[in-house]
Write a structure and sequence with these properties.
The complex is a heterodimer of chains A (271) and B (127). With 271 residues, chain A is α+β, with helices and mostly antiparallel strands. Chain A has one domain. Chain A is 23% helix and 25% strand. Chain A has a nine-stranded antiparallel β-sheet. Chain A is globular and about 55 Å long. Chain B is 17% helix and 35% strand. Chain B has two helices and six strands. In chain B, a hairpin with a 6-residue loop joins β1 and β2. Chain B is globular. The chains are: A alpha+beta (271), B alpha+beta (127). At the A-B interface, α1, α3 and α8 of A face α1 and α2 of B.
Chain lengths: 271, 127
Amino acid sequence: MRARVAITAAALACLASWLPGTAQEWSFPGISNEAFNKMPPGGPAPVRQLTGLWDAGAAGIGGQGQAAARDAARAPFTPLGQQMFARNKPGNGANAASVAENNDPLNTLGDPSGFPRIVNYELRTIQIVETPGQVLMLFSFNKTWRSIWTDGRQLPREPDPRWFGYSIGRWEDDYTFVIETNGLDDRTWLDNNGHPHSTALKVTERYRRVNLNTLELTVIVDDPLVYTKPWLTRDKLPLKRLPDNTDVIEQIYAASEAQAYQDTIASQTKP
Amino acid sequence: MEVPVGIRMIVCAFAGALLLSAPVRVVAHHGAATFDTEGELTVKGTVTEWIWSNPHCFLKFDVKGTDGTVKNWAIETGNIADSSKRGYARRSFKPGDAVTVTLQPAKSGAPVGRLRSVVLADGTKFQ
């Protein structure tokens, strides 16, 4: 009997150590690689359901090491796209510049990530909330959100560009939610590698519920002014479901903090 | 309740496996173009400020040279979320703390760099 109790206690302790954000923890900073890799399927995928807290682990943050990153390296620029890309001095990727030269509007100015960069880079913990007419995505990174309309409206024909554009969503089948977005502000980059876009950009996202604990994200960007063909920025990126009581960390790139970093460190690295 | 030796061994083995699978450092915004990744150095100093911020947390500390002059270094680490995963917190360091810092200096020669590890006087180590 004692042994059985001890085994049960040990098993529960082991299970608890695999699960992130349990025991009413405050300011959970995101899932570790270990917890990500050990997350069990949890059961069959529920029908037409996205609600929950999701985290892609390290792969969601840098977007490197994915097939999408290799695709990005072959981004098929138009002549205009090539010119725009040459102006960008990112901190990462094949075109990486030094800290002093970096002109990434997100890291140096505190501009918004905007969409689709918010899902291509620094895709940290997100909470998805379904309402009768919208799907809301609440992003821990910069504590911002998107509204994806599911009330049957169509995308605007001549939209005024916005940082996060205009999004509509529909269920393609019982497990795949498809989002289309247009009207995107061209001051944002697609990723942390400095890939540019125009206001003609259209983005298609597919969220496929693989099982109870896994959601797969695929993102296709289509911008005929900047790229000669559509390309993948995310290719079946797995997101894992966090416990419902996860209190997500507040991670905001405040302009004053970005300026302090520029003054204290970045400006001192000039050769 | 006394836990049988066999169970204790299983739990200890599992705990050991967890320790071995320590969190992986997340890639920073920038790399070899700015910092001397081959030229790590270790210095002893006194904390003047610990800035808990995005896009990078950074530690400022004074180092006294052999000629008696004091140089104030500013060394960056990851952002708040990534640093939290590695055990750092807003109150990890306070002014006056004695620290031993291993860093990658900027190629510019200025007293700035990228943090590799910090050891406090009581042996507490951050990486």
